[in-house]
Design goal:
single chain, two-stranded parallel ribbon, globular, seven-stranded parallel beta sheet, 12 helices, 323 residues
Length: 323
């Protein structure tokens, strides 16, 4: 299919960090787009809850899309561990329901999966390696992936890695967590180096989605940035890119250091290889360092650091306040 001014695209769960990139990419193709989310945080969004299967199906059928894109997911691993019923409903059951709607109206269905579905026992994983999910989040995403591949004829399942994008207001992942620590006054970050993965830039991911959809070869694809990294390497690169190498130090700690807050099981390695995209000549994903350099420009760290007094001044103020 060619995505152009006659294409009708419905995007579910479009209010998150990937949503804006996908919406913008589709609008750049002049497609007719309807986008929904439970968090209506943009004027181009309408309310839509994937857990309400009848209502979301009615919206989709009324819009009659050529392409249905499912971005809706609960991605907080700890939340999913503590709220498994909602996690399964949102990440698996709702995804299956949307797949049935797509099959019913004959449109193409795009489902976003995750590198987290692997157990981390291998160093890296291709599209053909067998998943073995560890967490509730990963298990729910994998079950939906299985259903879509087996039951929806016209489908694309795209596996993402460590997502980055959306900016300070929408990014709920690693980069923005680092940024928030810096803005709050931290000059010393603690980051693990025993977790490996492949960063995935939302802008490139959206462009790749369009190329894959237009190519017409249905199936499952790993789609992550080129290059692999540890959390420490990503953090170091980000701090350098925003010009704070001299002001902010990074200490390497083991994953156990954060065990209280991040108790959901995580694989030691989530490194994906875009084997099928490479073989088909459809890999538009750039190196993660190039993408991070582009993404870092949206973070106003100059303002953040200029509003903070030097550490010794801050400590004197605290002592004076407490005395």
């Amino acid at each position: 299919m060619k995505i152009n001014s006659t294409s009708r695209v419905y995007i579910v769960g479009c209010g998150g960090m990937l949503g804006e990139a996908v919406y913008s990419a589709m609008r750049a193709c002049d497609a007719i787009v309807m986008a929904s989310d439970i968090d209506v945080n943009e004027d181009w969004l309408t309310f839509g809850d994937v857990r309400d299967s009848d209502e979301i199906a009615r919206q989709i059928v009324d819009f009659a899309p050529d392409l249905l894109i499912n971005l809706a997911a609960l991605t907080d691993l700890e939340y999913c561990e503590c709220n498994p019923e909602n996690a399964w409903l949102t990440n698996a059951t709702a995804a299956e329901n949307l797949g049935r709607v797509a099959q019913q109206i004959g449109c193409v269905y795009v489902y976003i999966s995750t590198a987290g579905i692997f157990d981390g026992k291998q160093d890296s994983y291709t599209d053909f390696d067998a998943p073995s999910p560890l967490s509730v989040y990963a298990k729910s995403k994998y079950r939906a992936e299985l259903f879509v591949c087996a039951s929806v004829p016209k489908h694309y399942v795209l596996r993402a890695g460590w997502m980055m994008g959306g900016g300070p207001n929408k990014d709920k992942k690693f980069i923005n967590k680092l940024y928030k620590q810096i803005v709050s006054g931290s000059r010393h970050l603690r980051v693990v180096d025993d977790k490996l993965g492949t960063p995935t830039y939302t802008v490139d991911f959206a462009e790749g989605m369009i190329m894959i959809a237009e190519n017409g070869q249905y199936g499952l694809y790993n789609q992550v940035c080129r290059g692999t990294a540890s959390r420490y390497e990503v953090a170091s690169e980000f701090v350098n890119l925003i010009g704070l190498r001299e002001q902010v130090t990074i200490e390497i700690v083991p994953s156990d250091y954060f065990a209280k807050d991040y108790f959901a099981p995580r694989p030691a390695s989530e490194q994906l290889v875009n084997l099928k995209l490479n073989q088909l000549g459809l890999n538009v994903m750039r190196d993660w360092r190039v993408c991070l350099a582009e993404y870092a420009d949206v973070f106003d760290t100059t303002f953040a650091m200029n509003t903070l007094p030097p550490p010794d001044v801050r400590s004197r103020r605290l002592r004076k306040t407490s005395s």
